[in-house]
Amino acid sequence: MPNATQRRLAALAGALAALVALQACNTPPAPTDVWDPYEAQNRDTHAGNVAVDRALLRPAARAWGEGVPEPVRQGAVNFATNLQAPGDVVNDVLQGAGEDAVHNLFRFVINSTLGIGGLFDPASSFGLEHRDTDFGETLFVWGAPEGAYLELPLLGPSTERDAIGRVVDIVINPLSSIAPDVPVWVSPTGRVVQIVDTRDRLAVSIDGILYESADSYAQSRTIYLQNRRFELGDEAEDTYFDPYEDLYGE
Amino acid sequence: MANEISRRAVLGGLSALAVAAATPALSLTADAARELIMRAVADINAVINSGKSESAMYRDFEAIFRRYADVPTIAQSALGPDARSASRAQLAAFADAFTGYIARKYGKRFREFIGGQITVRSAQPVKSFLEVRATADLPGQAPFAVSFLVSDRSGRDLFFDLLIEGISLLKTERTEIGAMLDRRRGDVDQLIRDLRTAG
Question: Residue B177's closest CA among A218, A235, A111?
Fold first, then answer.
């Protein structure tokens, strides 16, 4: 039976092979705002995701927001975020972002100890604010193309590059090496808590996109892509839209 | 040594020329753009923390939008290619309905800022306009980025786009208005009627 490291390497090799395939085929002919060759399938997935949101996620988020006291919610989110800190450090290192790696490492050490296993976030009050990253960002830093737009079942808007990043993040999760005693279900549960909490905090905006817009698929697609490119600092030619060029025909 | 300095001066002069060439007829200065957005933000902050009713806040946001934004340009751009076939009266009616829609829709988002504060940071030229960067600080949340794009191409210093964490009002509304128009099979008059209550 292969050990954990071998399994990880195999999965990583698989993800890298997928990445090579991404480089080879899925590059848009010209830089465009939205590149969505899988639109028909994506729209099917979107319809399913909206149904899940309506039946499950939205009611759960409302119950979480209204039924659970704020300090408990904040503690749960802090705990879940802290679990991801080792993965953030690994990605910072892979990106060559030394300062961020040290920053996130100190955050993890402070919050795991003074913050009682991550329930509290004393690091932020020392000026070490949360600096999120992921393997999708690492791929961006390495020069991988964004690829086509994808809407993933349950996980929502993504791109080919970010979808590969999500898989790799799960595979390389260094938490199990640092803290082998933490049961395997803890990390995924933390993710669910973060999703439910975010759905509650951004309730007005997300309801607006999913239930009030004329085309919720097109809205979530443009909003995801704009926000993700901003987060990554992906300054494509068309970051800003200049309406005057359009109107005055320049 | 002297050589080094003069070379630097020449290079500096050249890059200044390049910047001047890249930004034709930009009479709007960073300070003026920053000052405009400082006033707009002061007005927004006052509304956010006024404790007024929802509908009163939307009226105030609409007034701010009309005062500081290039509403005709934003509206025409949101309408996209269909703006070309629309009549002057349709465009004016659309711009008017669109203003109320934006004030309600974004006013709803700004209501989430209650108890918070928007602070203007810096202004720098981009292409033929200026980007004024600000941060929104909300109690118990990480601060997030708000940007205003300012131009004087309308004849006055006005903002023509608002970006929250990189999400552009202009781009997002082009997509949304386009979808609304598709749903109404391109009927601009129907779109104008529906926009008066949407958002």
Answer: A218
CA distance linking residue A122 with residue A124, whole number of Å: 5
Does A240 contact B153 at a Cβ distance shorter than 8 Å? Answer: no
Token pair listed for A79: 């705990």
| CB A131, CB A103: distance < 8 Å | yes
- Residues of chain B in contact with residue A235, where contact means CB-CB under 8 angstroms, are none
Is the Cβ of A185 closer than 8 Å to some Cβ of chain B? no
Q: Is A129 on the interface with B (CB under 8 A)?
A: yes
CA distances from B60 to B27, B43, B53, B144 (A): 30, 9, 11, 23
Rounded CA separation B78/B61 (Å): 19
Q: Which residues of B touch A74 (CB under 8 A)?
A: 140
Which strand (E) or helix (H) includes residue B163?
strand B158-164
Q: What is the mean pLDDT of residues A222-232?
A: 94
List beta partners, residue B119: B135
- Angle in degrees, CA A64, A195, A192, rounded to 5: 85
Q: According to the 3-state scheme, what is the secondary structure of B93-140?
A: HHHHHHHHHHHHHHHHHHHCCCCCEEEEEEEEEECCEEEEEEEEECCC
Backbone angles phi, psi at A180, to 5 degrees: -65, -15
ipTM: 0.84
Report the DSSP beta bridge partners of residue B131: B124, B149
Neighbours of B91 (CB within 10 A): 17
CB contact under 8 A, B151 and A231: no
Burial A36-71 (b: 16+ CB within 10 A, else e): bebbeebbebbeebbeebeeebbebbeebbeeeeee
Q: Do B161 and A215 touch (CB under 8 A)?
A: no
Nearest to A160 by CA among A146, A173, A179, A171: A146
> Residue A42: pLDDT band by 50, 70, 90 thresholds?
very high
Q: Of all helices (H) and strands (E), which one includes residue B73?
A: helix B71-79
Q: Over chain B (199 residues), what is each successive 10-residue block's mean pLDDT?
A: 50 50 64 93 88 87 94 92 88 94 85 81 90 88 89 93 93 94 93 89
Written as six digits, the tokens of B88 are 């002057």
Q: Which of B153, B154, B156, B181 to mutate: most A Cβ within 10 Å?
A: B153
Give the one of A219, A230, A243 whose C-beta lies nearest to B165's C-beta. Answer: A230
